[in-house]
Amino acid sequence: MYTDTVLRNKGLNVLIDNLGKVDAERFISLINHDTFDYTEWRKDLFNNLSVKELSALAMQEYKNGDK
Fold it and tell me: For the chain, how many structural domains are there in total?
C-alpha cells in the first residue's frame, strides 16, 4: 500500500502521461467540482460484461503494459 503522497504523485503521473498536463488538470478540476460519486460509478462500470469478457479486457491491458 502506498502512502497518500506517493499515491497522489503516481495518480497524477498516470493522468499526465495519458491526457497531457492541460487535460489532466482539467480532469481533476471536473472531478473536484462535480457531484461525481466514484463508488457508485465503479459499481456499474462493468455490469454489462461477462466474467470472460472482463478477463479478456484485463489480459489485453496487461499485455499492452504501461503505454
Answer: 1
